C-alpha cells in the first residue's frame, strides 16, 4: 500500500526543533531492514512510478511527507535527491541529525532483498566506479583470477572421473559430438566460444536460435541429468584457464538474445563489465526461467553481484552451487 502526502513548507522543515539532537533507537541494520513502514522522498513527478515499483513489497511506504513531527528511528530513503529543492535536501540532512536512518532508496532495497531493483537505476549509479570494488581495484581482480585458476585446476582433477563417464554416456545415447561449442558475449562485449557437454540433440537449432525451456523436447535423457546437476558446465574449466570466464559471475548470454534483451531491460550490457561465470548469484537465487521476465530477475541479481562483490559472497555462491549439484536443484 502506498500513501502519498505532498504537503510541504519551510516551517515544516525547521519544525521548531530547538536544536534538539536525538539518537536513533535502531541497534542494528537488521532492525532497519525489518521495518514495516518506510518514508521515501523523490521529485513529485516520480511519485507514482516509485509507488508502482514498491507496491508489491512486504512493507508500506509514505511518499514525500514533509510533515513528520518525530523523525527518531524512522527509515527515510531518497531517490534522485539532487533534483530536490535545497529546502527539501535540508530536510533529509536534518532527518539524519534527528535520529532517522537515511540512505538512497536503491541501496536500502539492495540490503533488504539481496538484489538490485533495476527499474530505479540511472546513469549516475554506474559512473561511480570506485563503488564497484571488482571494477576499480586491481588487487581484487588479481586475487579473483588466482582463485579462478587454482580452483579450476583442482575442480578438473576432482571431477575427471565424472568428466570421462559423461563423455561416454553422451556418445552412447545419441549421435553427434560430445562437446558443444557456442558463441557467447563476455567481458567488454567480446565474444568467445563457451564449452559445454552436449545436452541436446545435434540438430537442436536447425530452425534457428531459441530460448531453452524447462522441459525442452530437444534435451536428451542424459542431457536432462547433466543439466540439472550442472555437469554440462564442467568443460567451461577450459574457458576459465583461458581467462575468458570466472568461477563466479553473471552467466554469459548469446549476442542474438542480448540485442533483444537490452531493448527491454535497463543497463543490460553492464553485466559485461566483469567476466562471466560458470555459476552466479542469479543461478543460485532464482529458479530456472526462459523468458524476458526471468531475464529481468536474473539481471537484478547480476547487478547486485557486481556492486557488492566480495570473496565472501563468491564463497557463499559456491556453497549454494555445490548444493545444487549434489541435490539436482539446477535448471
Provide a concise account of the structure shown.
This is Sugar transferase. The chain is an alpha/beta fold.
How many E-type strands? 9
Helical proportion?
Answer: 40-55%
H-E order:
EHHEHEEHEHHHHHEEHHEHEHHH
For the record, the count of structural domains works out to 2
Low-confidence sequence ranges: 5-19
Account of the protein in words:
The chain folds into two domains: 2-113, no CATH class; 133-327, no CATH class. Helix content is 44%, strand content 12%. The chain has 15 helices and nine strands. Strands 1-3-2-4-5 form a five-stranded parallel β-sheet, sandwiched between helices. Strands 6-7 form a two-stranded antiparallel ribbon. α9 runs antiparallel to α10 (221-228). The longest helix has 21 residues, at 138-158. The chain is elongated, with a radius of gyration of 24 Å. The model is unreliable at 5-19 (pLDDT under 50). Belongs to the bacterial sugar transferase family. It is a multi-pass membrane protein. This is Sugar transferase. Residues 144-326 form the Bacterial sugar transferase domain.
Which short descriptors sum up this protein?
331 residues; alpha/beta; 2 domains; five-stranded parallel beta sheet; 12% strand; elongated; Bact_transf; membrane
Question: How are the SSEs placed, and which strands pair?
Answer:
Layout: E1 2-4, H1 10-14, H2 29-32, E2 37-41, H3 47-54, E3 60-63, E4 75-78, H4 86-97, E5 101-104, H5 105-113, H6 123-127, H7 133-136, H8 138-158, H9 160-173, E6 179-185, E7 191-197, H10 221-228, H11 237-241, E8 246-248, H12 255-264, E9 277-279, H13 281-285, H14 292-308, H15 311-327
Amino acid at each position: 500500500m502506498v500513501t502519498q502526502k505532498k504537503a510541504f513548507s519551510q516551517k515544516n522543515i525547521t519544525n521548531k526543533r530547538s536544536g534538539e539532537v536525538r539518537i536513533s533507537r535502531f541497534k542494528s541494520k537488521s532492525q532497519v531492514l525489518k521495518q514495516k513502514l518506510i518514508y521515501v522522498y523523490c521529485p513529485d513527478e516520480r511519485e507514482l512510478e516509485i509507488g508502482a515499483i514498491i507496491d508489491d513489497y512486504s512493507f508500506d511506504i509514505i511518499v514525500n511527507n514533509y510533515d513528520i513531527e518525530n523523525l527518531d528511528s524512522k527509515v527515510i530513503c531518497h531517490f534522485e535527491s539532487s533534483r530536490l529543492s535545497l529546502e527539501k535536501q535540508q530536510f533529509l540532512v536534518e532527518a539524519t541529525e534527528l535520529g532517522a536512518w537515511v540512505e538512497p532508496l536503491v541501496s536500502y532495497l539492495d540490503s533488504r532483498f539481496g538484489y538490485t531493483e533495476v527499474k530505479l537505476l540511472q546513469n549516475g549509479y554506474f559512473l561511480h566506479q570506485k563503488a564497484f570494488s571488482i571494477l576499480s581495484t586491481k588487487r581484487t581482480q588479481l586475487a579473483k583470477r588466482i582463485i579462478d585458476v587454482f580452483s579450476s585446476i583442482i575442480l578438473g582433477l576432482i571431477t575427471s572421473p565424472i568428466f570421462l563417464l559423461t563423455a561416454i554416456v553422451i556418445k552412447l545415447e545419441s549421435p553427434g559430438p560430445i562437446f558443444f561449442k557456442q558463441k557467447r558475449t563476455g567481458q567488454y562485449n567480446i565474444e568467445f566460444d563457451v564449452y559445454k557437454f552436449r545436452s541436446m540433440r545435434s540438430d537442436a537449432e536447425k530452425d534457428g536460435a531459441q530460448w531453452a525451456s524447462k522441459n525442452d523436447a530437444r534435451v536428451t535423457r542424459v542431457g536432462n541429468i547433466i543439466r540439472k546437476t550442472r555437469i554440462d558446465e564442467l568443460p567451461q574449466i577450459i574457458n576459465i584457464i583461458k581467462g575468458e570466464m570466472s568461477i563466479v559471475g553473471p552467466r554469459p548470454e548469446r549476442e542474438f538474445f542480448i540485442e533483444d534483451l537490452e531493448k527491454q531491460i535497463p543497463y543490460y550490457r553492464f553485466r559485461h563489465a566483469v567476466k562471466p561465470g560458470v555459476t552466479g548469484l542469479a543461478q543460485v537465487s532464482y529458479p530456472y526461467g526462459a523468458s524476458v521476465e526471468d531475464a529481468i530477475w536474473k539481471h537484478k541479481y547480476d547487478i547486485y553481484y557486481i556492486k557488492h562483490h566480495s570473496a565472501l559472497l563468491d564463497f557463499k555462491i559456491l556453497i549454494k552451487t555445490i548444493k545444487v549439484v549434489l541435490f539436482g536443484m539446477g535448471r
